[in-house]
Amino acid sequence: MTCSVLSAPLMANEDIVLDGVKAQQVQAALQTQIDAADEQTRATLEELRQLERETRLLTRENSALSARLTTQATRQQRMSNALDTLEETRAALPQIEADMTRQLTQWIKRDLPFLQNERMARVVLIDSEGLESVERISELLGVWRQEFAYGREVDTWRGRLAAKSGEREVDFLRIGRIGFYYLSPDGQEGGVWLAEASRWQSLDESARRDVRHGLRMANDQRAPALLTLPLSVTVADQSTSASASESEAGGEQ
């Protein structure tokens, strides 16, 4: 009787312990599931954030690419238009070159007759060098620049003067494009070129002295001083020449 009474409470206690163990096991399993769910949630959130970053990056790259494509399309169109224009310009180059050569030749022939052979030779040489049209035009522009520079220079040289009595050696003096003179080596004869009459006119002793001074100034043998000399051209002639040169330079463009 005594043993039976004592075993009942012990069994009840064992059941309570077993229930507690099971509850702990269930709680542990639930916690494990919760932890696994949290980890998966965190991984999913991180993946979403990464996808968002990649999406923003792709959006920026697409915008930049679109802008580059637009720029390239515009550039391609400009190049296409330029090529069309280039073909037209290239076709016009021979005529432009011919006009420039003709204008240069006429200019030199109409100008004061100084260094004419040398100046004409520059024009002829360009045509004989076998250059492309663009290169020849560039060379012709260089000759134009040299021609314009003559108008700002004072120059002197010894050369041959053609006269009725034959050629003889003299010293030439050029003052821009307004005065062209010569003086014999002994100083006893001198002249000024009259552009309107296309001839030399003799100078008196006073004018020849000024030509001598001009020669020395051009050779840096004398300080600059005022010269009193007749001009080769009138002011009206010089203005006309300047206007003609500007017109011809404009025509070559």
From TrEMBL:
Coiled coil regions in record: 34-68
Alphabetic keyword roster: Coiled coil
Pfam families the UniProt entry points to: DUF3450
Name of the protein described by the UniProt record: DUF3450 domain-containing protein
Organism per entry: Vreelandella vilamensis
Lineage: Bacteria, Pseudomonadati, Pseudomonadota, Gammaproteobacteria, Oceanospirillales
